[in-house]
C-alpha cells in the first residue's frame, strides 16, 4: 500500500474517536468525542478536523482504515438485534448451559452470562451429522418450516443456524439457510456456524455464530450509513476494516462477519508495536497499552505477536475468565487486566489495597475530575504522587483537583491503613503496577518466554506513567515511548496488511492420514482466504501462511506449527514432529518422544506484503536536555519523594539525553523516567529509556 | 513513619506476589497435564508454605477438594523428611490418600526452596493422573489395595537427578505409563517455577527469610476470618442427610458449634465406612466441609493456614467421613461433595437467610466403553473399541433471593466436556442433552434444573456405563424454608429398564442410555413465588403447565 500517499485511520473507542491522517507532509491527529447514537457523526467530524489541519480536501485521501468497538459494546450492553437460533433437536440448551461450570468457586451467588438468544427463540430441528461427517438423520423440512413461522411471529431480525458437527459436514446448515431464506423476509439476516466458525466444540461455535448474527444488522446498518456519508463528503477512497487478528478486510466482508471486528483497537496498538520493533531492530518487544479501564500486554518476537483463536467478550463478573461469551475468531494473543487510569482502589477485609477491575469511567471519573466521583482511582494516585500535573492534564483542557484526589485516597485508603500524606497513593500505584507485572509474568511463562529480555513499547494515555516502574519490576532494561503514544492504535491501523485467516477442524494422527485429503483441505482454505483478500488488494502480491494446531494425543493444549506453502509430502511429517517437540520443550521443559501427535485444526492466512520498515538506529546522546521546571514526585524504588526535573517533550529533539528521575510532559500523556533509568530521544522522536548499568 | 508506611506497602505487594506465584504454578500444570480430569475439570492444586509447613497461599485455579488437604499435606511430608535434612535439588512425592488429597489418583509433589543452602520455603502441587492401576476409576474395590499402587512419602529427585527407580515402579503399575510420568514431571517443573519466582521476589525486596511475611499473611487472614465468624450467631446447630450409598443408604450427621470467632463441625453419628470406594478420607472431608463454611461466611478471604485455622472438623475414625486404612476411597467425591450441603444445613439454623438449598452435589462421571468384546456378539466383531468419559451435572439449590443455577457443577469446580469432543473420541451419539422441565425444586426461589442426556452407540453395538458416582437417585436434594426438593436423578435404558446406582451396566445392542440428573432444591414457600416468574418459567419451558398447577398451585 506504499502507493497510497494520503492515508486516514479512525478508531472508535468507548469515549473518544481517534483520527490520524498521514500525508507526504507529515502526520496530523485529533481526538473527538464518540457519538454512540450515530457513530458516523463523530467519524465525519474528526475527519473534518484533520483535513482542515492538513489543509487538504476529502478527495485527496487515497485509503481509509477503520476500527471500532461498536460490536463489542453492543454485546456488552446487549443492544444487538433480536436473534433466533436454529439448532439440532435435543441440543437447544447447549447455548445456555455453556461450560456448566462456576467461574468463581466461592461465590454461590454468581450467575452465568445470559445467552444472546433466550430459550423460546431457540428452535430444534431434527437432523444429525456424526463426528465423521456422516448423515445419521436427514434434515426435517417440516421442522424448519415451523421454526420459520415462529421466527416470523417473534419478529426476530437475525437468525443463527448451528448444527452439531457442522464443521465436518456443512450441507445441513446450508440447506437450512436456503430454506429459511425463502420463508423469511430478505431483511432478516442469516448466519451459519460452518461459515462463521467451522471448529469443533459446539458451545463455542454456537456462541460465536449467535454473536455474529446478533451484531450484524446493527453493524451492517452503521457501515452502510458511514459509506454513504463518506461518499457524500467526497471521500471516495476504499474503506477497510481492522479485525481482531491484526489484518484488514473489505467493507463487504466486515458486514458479513462483524464478530471479527471486536478488539480491533488493541490489535492496532500491537501492530504499531510490531512496526516499531522492526524499525528499531528489537527481536523481543513487549507492547504495554494502558487506557482508562484496562491494561493490555502482548509479547512480540521478531515483530510478530502470537495469535490465538479464542476470546471472551462482555465479561460480567470482575473480568473473570468464564464470565463472558466465548467467541472463536482470530485474535492477537494478549493479556488484558482491569487496571487503567479510572480503576477504583479500595481496602479489603484483610486490610489489603485492591485496585479494579471496576472503573470510574469518564463520568463521574476519578475524584480529581471534580465531577462527583468520590472513590479514589489510579489517576488520583498519580496526581497525589506528583506524577501528573493537575494544571496541565490533557494539554490543560481538563483541570484536575488535587485536593479531591487526596481526600478520596485518604478517606478510602489512608484512614483504613493508618497511612498519611502521599503514602495511600504510593500504595495504590505500587499495587496496580504489581498487578500488571504479575499478569505479564504469567503471560510470559505460559508461553515459555523470558520476560526480562524484552524491550517494552508503551502507549495509550496511562502507560508512560507506569512503564518505568513496571520495567523495574519485570527486570526489563529498555523502554520505548513512541511519538503519538496517545493515538497508538489508530497509527497502528495504517501499518496493517489486508489479511484473512480461514480455519477448519479436522483431527488426524500425525503418523497416518491421507495426505491427498489434507492437501485438498489446505487448497480449499487457501482459495477461500485468497478470494476474501484479493477483493481488497486487487493484483498486489500476497503471502501465505499455513498453520496446523498440533498436540499430544490426550493433552488439551495445542501448539500452532507452520507448514510449507506447497502440497504436503510424507517427509514433512517427521520434520513437523521434530519442530513440535522443540517448541514443546521450550515451553514445558520436557518432550515426550513416546507419545503420538495429532493435528486438530488447519488454517491458511493470506496477506498483502508490507513495505520494508525504515531502520531507526539506536539513539546516541548528542546534547543534554534542559529541564523546564522541578517538582516533588514519589520515586517508588527509592521509597521517597524527590525533586524531579520536568521536561517538555516537544522541546526534546533527537539526540537529547537526560537522567532519571525525571518527568517528561506532553499533551496526551506524561512519561516518568525512574531514578534507575536514563533517557535519550531517537531520530524519530521516541523516548528510549535505558536502565543504568549495575542496576 | 515513612519507613513503616513503605514497609506496609511492600508487605502487601509481596502478599500479592505470593498469590501470583502459586497461580503461575497452577497454570503450568493445567497446560501440561495429560489427565483429562486435571485438564478439563481443573482437578489440581498448587501452594507455597513456610519452613514450619504453614500454607501461605494456594492457587485459586483448582478444585475445593484440595483446600485443606493441601494445607495439611506438607506437614505430613515434614514428619518423614524434616526440613533440616532437605538439600537443594530435593523433591518429595506421595499419593497416600490419607496423607495427601484423598485418593491414589492424586500425586502430591513437594519442593523446598533454598537461599545459600538454607531452606526458606516449600512448594507443593498435586494433580489427578490418568491411571494408577488397580480397578481404575470405579467404586467397586473393597480395599485401597485393589485401587492401585500407593507410593509412600519418598524422595523423587535429589541434586543427583530423578529417582528413576521410583518412577519405574509407578510406570509399571499404570495402564498409561507415559502420561503418568509426564504428569509427575510437570508437577516437578511447576514447583521449580514457583521456587524461582519466590527467590526472585526475595532478591528484589532484599529478604533473607519470609518469616515476617508469613506472620503478616497468617495473622491478617485469621483475623478477617474470625471477624466474619463473629457475625454468625453463637450456638450449636445440627443437620442430617441421607444418601443412596452403594449397597445401603448412608446417613450423615453433623453438629456445628459456633464459638467466639471459631467454628467446629462434628460428624459423630454418621454411617460407618462403606465396603465400596465411596468413602471420604478425613482430609477430603475437612476440605469440602470448610469450603461450604467459607462460601457462606468468608468467601473473599484467601486460603492459607490463617484463614483455615478458625475452622475445625471432627469425625469418628472408621466412619464414612473418616475411613481408616485399608478402606477403598477412589470415588471419595460421592460423599465428599455432599458435605457443603451439610455445612449449609447447620448454618441454615444459625443464619436462615444466608445459605442455598441442597444441590445435585456429587458429579455424575459418565464413564463409558465398548462392550462387544465382552458379549462376543459376532454381529459387532468389527465395532470400534473405545473408552471415554463425560460428566453429568445437575441443578444447584436455589439461593437466597435467586433461583438456582441449572446444569452446573456445585460444589465441584469442574465443567462439562463438549458433546463433539466425546463423539469424536468414540462412536457414541448424544441424541439429547437438554434441561429437564419440572426438575428444579419448587420454591419462592426455584432450584436449578437438572438435565436429560440420551446416548446411543451409532454402530448399534452394546456399551458399558459405570454408575459408580450416581447418587441422589433415591434421596433428592432437599429444599429449605418451605421450598420443595428437586427431582431425584434417574438412570435407565430407552427401552425402559431402570439402572440401579453404583454398579457397572451394559447398554444392550441398539438400545440407548438415558440419564436424568437431579434438580436443585427450592427455597421458600412455592405459593409465594411471584406469578410473573412462574409464567416466565412456563414460557421458557422450564416448568410445564401441569407442573405449575401441581407444584405452585396455579390454575
Key words describing this protein structure:
heterodimer; A: 695 residues; alpha/beta; Nucleotidyltransferase, domain 5; Rossmann fold; 16 helices; 36 strands; B: 555 residues; alpha+beta; seven-stranded antiparallel sheet; 14 helices; 19 strands; 30% helix
What is the terminal separation of chain B in angstroms?
72 Å
- Domain count of chain B: the total is 2
Rg from alpha-carbon coordinates of chain B:
24 Å
Oligomer: heterodimer
User: What is the CATH H-level superfamily of the largest domain in chain A?
Assistant: ATPase, nucleotide binding domain
CATH top level class name of the largest domain in chain A: Alpha Beta
What structural class do helix, strand and pairing data of chain A support?
A: alpha/beta
Explained architecture:
The complex is a heterodimer of chains A (695) and B (555). With 695 residues, chain A is an alpha/beta fold. Chain A folds into 6 domains: 7-75 and 221-261, Nucleotidyltransferase, domain 5 (2-Layer Sandwich); 80-215, 3-Layer(aba) Sandwich (Rossmann fold); 264-338 and 431-493, Nucleotidyltransferase, domain 5, CATH 3.30.420.40; 343-428, no CATH class; 499-608, Dna Ligase, domain 1 (2-Layer Sandwich), CATH 3.30.1490; 635-691, no CATH class. Chain A is 31% helix and 27% strand. In chain A, the strands form 9 sheets. In chain A, strands 13, 14, 15, 20, 23, 24, 29, 32, 35 and 36 form a 10-stranded mixed sheet that branches. In chain A, strand 21 and strand 22 (353-359) form a beta hairpin. In chain A, helix 2 (70-76) packs across helix 7. The longest helix of chain A has 31 residues, at 202-232. Chain A is globular and about 80 Å long. The mean pLDDT of chain A is 91. Chain B is an alpha+beta fold and 555 residues long. Chain B has 2 domains: 2-221, no CATH class; 356-555, no CATH class. Chain B is 30% helix and 21% strand. Chain B has helices spanning 2-32, 36-39, 67-80, 164-172, 177-204, 211-229, 282-297, 305-308, 333-336, 339-350, 372-375, 419-424, 531-540, 545-552; strands spanning 44-49, 55-58, 91-94, 106-115, 118-128, 154-158, 161-162, 235-243, 250-259, 262-266, 311-314, 364-370, 387-392, 428-435, 451-457, 463-466, 490-493, 504-507, 512-516. In chain B, strands 2-1-5-4-3-6-7 form a 7-stranded antiparallel sheet, with helices on both faces. In chain B, a hairpin with a 2-residue loop joins strand 6 and strand 7. In chain B, helix 3 (67-80) packs across helix 7 (282-297). The chains are: A alpha/beta (695), B alpha+beta (555). Chains A and B meet through helix 3 and helix 12 of A and helix 1, helix 5, helix 6, helix 7 and helix 12 of B.
Amino acid at each position: 500500500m506504499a502507493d497510497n500517499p494520503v492515508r486516514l485511520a479512525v478508531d472508535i473507542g468507548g469515549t473518544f474517536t481517534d483520527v490520524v491522517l498521514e500525508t507526504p507532509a507529515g502526520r496530523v491527529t485529533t481526538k473527538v468525542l464518540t457519538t454512540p447514537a450515530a457513530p458516523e457523526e463523530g467519524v465525519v467530524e474528526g475527519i473534518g478536523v484533520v483535513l482542515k489541519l492538513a489543509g487538504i480536501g476529502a478527495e485527496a485521501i487515497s485509503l481509509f482504515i477503520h476500527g471500532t468497538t461498536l460490536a463489542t459494546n453492543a454485546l456488552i450492553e446487549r443492544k444487538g438485534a433480536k436473534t433466533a437460533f436454529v439448532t439440532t433437536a435435543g441440543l437447544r440448551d447447549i447455548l445456555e448451559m455453556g461450560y456448566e461450570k462456576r467461574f468463581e468457586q466461592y461465590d454461590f451467588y454468581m450467575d452465568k452470562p445470559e445467552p444472546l438468544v433466550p430459550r423460546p427463540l431457540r428452535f430444534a430441528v431434527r437432523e444429525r451429522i456424526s463426528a465423521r461427517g456422516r448423515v445419521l438423520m436427514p434434515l426435517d423440512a417440516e421442522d424448519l418450516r415451523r421454526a420459520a413461522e415462529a421466527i416470523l411471529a417473534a419478529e426476530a431480525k437475525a437468525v443463527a443456524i448451528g448444527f452439531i458437527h457442522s464443521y465436518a459436514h456443512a450441507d445441513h446448515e446450508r440447506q437450512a439457510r436456503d430454506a429459511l431464506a425463502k420463508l423469511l423476509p430478505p431483511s432478516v439476516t442469516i448466519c451459519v456456524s460452518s461459515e462463521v466458525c467451522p471448529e469443533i466444540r459446539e458451545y463455542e461455535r454456537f456462541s460465536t455464530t449467535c454473536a455474529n448474527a446478533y451484531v450484524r444488522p446493527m453493524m451492517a446498518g452503521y457501515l452502510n450509513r458511514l459509506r454513504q456519508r463518506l461518499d457524500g463528503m467526497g471521500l471516495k477512497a476504499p474503506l477497510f476494516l481492522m479485525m481482531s487478528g491484526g489484518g484488514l478486510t473489505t467493507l463487504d466482508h466486515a458486514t458479513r462477519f462483524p464478530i471479527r471486528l471486536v478488539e480491533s483497537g488493541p490489535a492496532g496498538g500491537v501492530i504499531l508495536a510490531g512496526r516499531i520493533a522492526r524499525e528499531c531492530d528489537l527481536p523481543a518487544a513487549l507492547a504495554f497499552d494502558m487506557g482508562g479501564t484496562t491494561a493490555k500486554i502482548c509479547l512480540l518476537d521478531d515483530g510478530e505477536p502470537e495469535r490465538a483463536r479464542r476470546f471472551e467478550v462482555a465479561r460480567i463478573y470482575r473480568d473473570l475468565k468464564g464470565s463472558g461469551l466465548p467467541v472463536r475468531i482470530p485474535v492477537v494473543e494478549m493479556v488484558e487486566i482491569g487496571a487503567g487510569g479510572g480503576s477504583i482502589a479500595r481496602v479489603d477485609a484483610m486490610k489489603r489495597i485492591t485496585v479494579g477491575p471496576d472503573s470510574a469511567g469518564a463520568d463521574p471519573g476519578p475524584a480529581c475530575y471534580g465531577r462527583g466521583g468520590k472513590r479514589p482511582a489510579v489517576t488520583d494516585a498519580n496526581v497525589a504522587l506528583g506524577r501528573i500535573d493537575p494544571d496541565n492534564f490533557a494539554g490543560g483542557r481538563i483541570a484536575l483537583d488535587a485536593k479531591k484526589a487526596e481526600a478520596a485516597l485518604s478517606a478510602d485508603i489512608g484512614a483504613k491503613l493508618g497511612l498519611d500524606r502521599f503514602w495511600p497513593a504510593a500504595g495504590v500505584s505500587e499495587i496496580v503496577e504489581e498487578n500488571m507485572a504479575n499478569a505479564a509474568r504469567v503471560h510470559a511463562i505460559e508461553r515459555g518466554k523470558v520476560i526480562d529480555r524484552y524491550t517494552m513499547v508503551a502507549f495509550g494515555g496511562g502507560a508512560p506513567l507506569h512503564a518505568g516502574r513496571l520495567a523495574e519490576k519485570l527486570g526489563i532494561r529498555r523502554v520505548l515511548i513512541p511519538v503519538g503514544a496517545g493515538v497508538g492504535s489508530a497509527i497502528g491501523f495504517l501499518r496493517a496488511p489486508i489479511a484473512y485467516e480461514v480455519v477448519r477442524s479436522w483431527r488426524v494422527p500425525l503418523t497416518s492420514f491421507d495426505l491427498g485429503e489434507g492437501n485438498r483441505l489446505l487448497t480449499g482454505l487457501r482459495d477461500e482466504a485468497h478470494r476474501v483478500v484479493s477483493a481488497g488488494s486487487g493484483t498486489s502480491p500476497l503471502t501465505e501462511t499455513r498453520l496446523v494446531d498440533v498436540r499430544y494425543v490426550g493433552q488439551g493444549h495445542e501448539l500452532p506449527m507452520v507448514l510449507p506453502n506447497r502440497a504436503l509430502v510424507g517427509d514433512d511429517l517427521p520434520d513437523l514432529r521434530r519442530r513440535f517437540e522443540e517448541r514443546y520443550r521450550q515451553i514445558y521443559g520436557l518432550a515426550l518422544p513416546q507419545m503420538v501427535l495429532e493435528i486438530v485444526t488447519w488454517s491458511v492466512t493470506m496477506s498483502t506484503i508490507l513495505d520494508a520498515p525504515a531502520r531507526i538506529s539506536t539513539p546516541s546522546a548528542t546534547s543534554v536536555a534542559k529541564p523546564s521546571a522541578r517538582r516533588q514526585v514519589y520515586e517508588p524504588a527509592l521509597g521517597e519523594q524527590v525533586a524531579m526535573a520536568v521536561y517538555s517533550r516537544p522541546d526534546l529533539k533527537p539526540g537529547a539525553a537526560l537522567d532519571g528521575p525525571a518527568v517528561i510532559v506532553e499533551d496526551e500523556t506524561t512519561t516518568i523516567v525512574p531514578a534507575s533509568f536514563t533517557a535519550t530521544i531517537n531520530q524519530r522522536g521516541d523516548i528510549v529509556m535505558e536502565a543504568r548499568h549495575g542496576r | 513513619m515513612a519507613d513503616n508506611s513503605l514497609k506496609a506497602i511492600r508487605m502487601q505487594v509481596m502478599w500479592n506476589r505470593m498469590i501470583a506465584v502459586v497461580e503461575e504454578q497452577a497454570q503450568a500444570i493445567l497446560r501440561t497435564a495429560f489427565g483429562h480430569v486435571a485438564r478439563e475439570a481443573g482437578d489440581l492444586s498448587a501452594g507455597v508454605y513456610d519452613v514450619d509447613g504453614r500454607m501461605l497461599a494456594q492457587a485459586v485455579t483448582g478444585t475445593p477438594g484440595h483446600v485443606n488437604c493441601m494445607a495439611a499435606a506438607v506437614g505430613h511430608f515434614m514428619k518423614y523428611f524434616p526440613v533440616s535434612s532437605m538439600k537443594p535439588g530435593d523433591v518429595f512425592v506421595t499419593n497416600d490418600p490419607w496423607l495427601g488429597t484423598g485418593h491414589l489418583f492424586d500425586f502430591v509433589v513437594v519442593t523446598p526452596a533454598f537461599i545459600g543452602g538454607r531452606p526458606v520455603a516449600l512448594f507443593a502441587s498435586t494433580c489427578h493422573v490418568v491411571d494408577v492401576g488397580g480397578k481404575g476409576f470405579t467404586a467397586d474395590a473393597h480395599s485401597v489395595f485393589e485401587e492401585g499402587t500407593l507410593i509412600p512419602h519418598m524422595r523423587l529427585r535429589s541434586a543427583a537427578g530423578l529417582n528413576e527407580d521410583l518412577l519405574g515402579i509407578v510406570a509399571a503399575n499404570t495402564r498409561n505409563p507415559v502420561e503418568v510420568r509426564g504428569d509427575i514431571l510437570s508437577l516437578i517443573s511447576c514447583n521449580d517455577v514457583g521456587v524461582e519466582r519466590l527467590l526472585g521476589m526475595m532478591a528484589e525486596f532484599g529478604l533473607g527469610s519470609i518469616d515476617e511475611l508469613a506472620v503478616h499473611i497468617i495473622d491478617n487472614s485469621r483475623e478477617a476470618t474470625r471477624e466474619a465468624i463473629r457475625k454468625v450467631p453463637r450456638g450449636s446447630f445440627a443437620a442430617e442427610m441421607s444418601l443412596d450409598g452403594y449397597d445401603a443408604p448412608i446417613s450423615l450427621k453433623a453438629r456445628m458449634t459456633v464459638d467466639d470467632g471459631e467454628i467446629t463441625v462434628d460428624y459423630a453419628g454418621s454411617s460407618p465406612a462403606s465396603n465400596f470406594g465411596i468413602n471420604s478420607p478425613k482430609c477430603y472431608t475437612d476440605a469440602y466441609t470448610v469450603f461450604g463454611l467459607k462460601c457462606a461466611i468468608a468467601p473473599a478471604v484467601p486460603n492459607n493456614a490463617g484463614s483455615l485455622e478458625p475452622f475445625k472438623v471432627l469425625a469418628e475414625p472408621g466412619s464414612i467421613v473418616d475411613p481408616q486404612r485399608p478402606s477403598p476411597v477412589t470415588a471419595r467425591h460421592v460423599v465428599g461433595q455432599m458435605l457443603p450441603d451439610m455445612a449449609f444445613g447447620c448454618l441454615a439454623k444459625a443464619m436462615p437467610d444466608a445459605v442455598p438449598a441442597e444441590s445435585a452435589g456429587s458429579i455424575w462421571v459418565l464413564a463409558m466403553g465398548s462392550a462387544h468384546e465382552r458379549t462376543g456378539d459376532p454381529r459387532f466383531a468389527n465395532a470400534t473399541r473405545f473408552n471415554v468419559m463425560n460428566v453429568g451435572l445437575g441443578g444447584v439449590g436455589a439461593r437466597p433471593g435467586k433461583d438456582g443455577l441449572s446444569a452446573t457443577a456445585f460444589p465441584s469446580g469442574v465443567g462439562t466436556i463438549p458433546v463433539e469432543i466425546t463423539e469424536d473420541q468414540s462412536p457414541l451419539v448424544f441424541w439429547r442433552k437438554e434441561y429437564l422441565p419440572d426438575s428444579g425444586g419448587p420454591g419462592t426461589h426455584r432450584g436449578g434444573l437438572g438435565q436429560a442426556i440420551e446416548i446411543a452407540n451409532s454402530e448399534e453395538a452394546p456399551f458399558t456405563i459405570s454408575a459408580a458416582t450416581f447418587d441422589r437417585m433415591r434421596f433428592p436434594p432437599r429444599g429449605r424454608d418451605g421450598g420443595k426438593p428437586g427431582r431425584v436423578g434417574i438412570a435407565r435404558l430407552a427401552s425402559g429398564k431402570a439402572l440401579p446406582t453404583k454398579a457397572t451396566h451394559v447398554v444392550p445392542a441398539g438400545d440407548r442410555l438415558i440419564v436424568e440428573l437431579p434438580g436443585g432444591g427450592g427455597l421458600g414457600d412455592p405459593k409465594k413465588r411471584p406469578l410473573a416468574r412462574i409464567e416466565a418459567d412456563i414460557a421458557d419451558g422450564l416448568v410445564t403447565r401441569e407442573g405449575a398447577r401441581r407444584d405452585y398451585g396455579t390454575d
